[in-house]
Every structure is written in C-alpha cells, then in structure tokens.
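User: What would this chain look like folded?
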Amino acid sequence: MTASPELRTVPTLGAPRQASPDLLRSAFRRHAAGVAVVTAHGERPVGFTATSLTSVAADPPLLSFGVGTGSSSWPVLARAGHVGVHILGEHQQDLAATFARSGADRFGAGTGWSRGPEGVPVLDGVLAWLVCRVVARVPAGDHRIVIAEAVAGDPGGTGRPLLYHQGRFNALRD
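Assistant: Here's the prediction, encoded as structure tokens.
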C-alpha cells in the first residue's frame, strides 16, 4: 500500500499587476542582496553602490554588475578599461550610503582609499576587493550590464557582509 501524498497549503496569489518599473522595484525590495561599491578612474575617481553584483564564471574569473546610463559615474565607466569592485562589510553602512547618494563627495575626507592596480581607486576596510578588466558593456534598457574579468584583488578583509533589503542596509542575523 502506498502512502497518500502530503497535503500542501498553496499561498493565495494576489491580483497580478502590469509590469512596470515600480513593480520590478517593489518585487526586488523583497530580495536581499549583498552590497558592493564599484569604482573607476578617469579625469577623477568615480564610484557607486551596487546590489547587482554577480559572479559569472570561475574560469576565466568573470563578474557582472548593472549601472544606469544616467548616473554620474557612467561617463567614466563607459570608457574605463578597468574597474574596482569592493564587497562591503556590515560596518560600512555609511560608506554604502555615501556612494549611493547623488551629488555626494564620494572620495572626500570621510572615504579612505588609495590608487590600486591599473590606477583603480581601492577602498579601505572592505571585506574583499577586485580590480577587473572590462570585457563587455551590454545594453539593457536604461542600464548597461558590465562584464569584467578579475585581474588582481584581496579577499582578506574581516567581518560580516552588508546586505540591502526592503530599501535599507542590513546585517546578517543568526
């Protein structure tokens, strides 16, 4: 005799909404994401906070991130041969907020950084950083998906990762 299948409760779905930028933002507010800062150098250093960082391949070591073409960093990133990718720790909420804020002095006195390999700005105190060679910029609506190959880095920082969820920076909970 076979056992009867387990009964499951299926959640009631709400009424579907038409796809829109607001719908996508609302859905992704429920998705916890790691927080990174991407930097580059042109006539001046630029950077922005990214939650779209993704590992693409291990061999060669590729990653990707999205950047808005209307952002103040885009003109430099559009031409940069190399970028810095920094994984932030939970102790770096202020740094994440600075790099997320439009018009902020991102490389001012409150930001510790130095020029790293390929002249890329490397931030102090991060959990890990990579300098990457840009291999592609793929059009995606009002953004570009940048694919880059890691050429140098240091994963030796200490601490726990910073997360972004429900429109706020958060820490992991045990």
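Residues 33-166 form a domain with the Pnp Oxidase; Chain A fold (CATH 2.30.110.10). If you want, I can go into more detail on any region.
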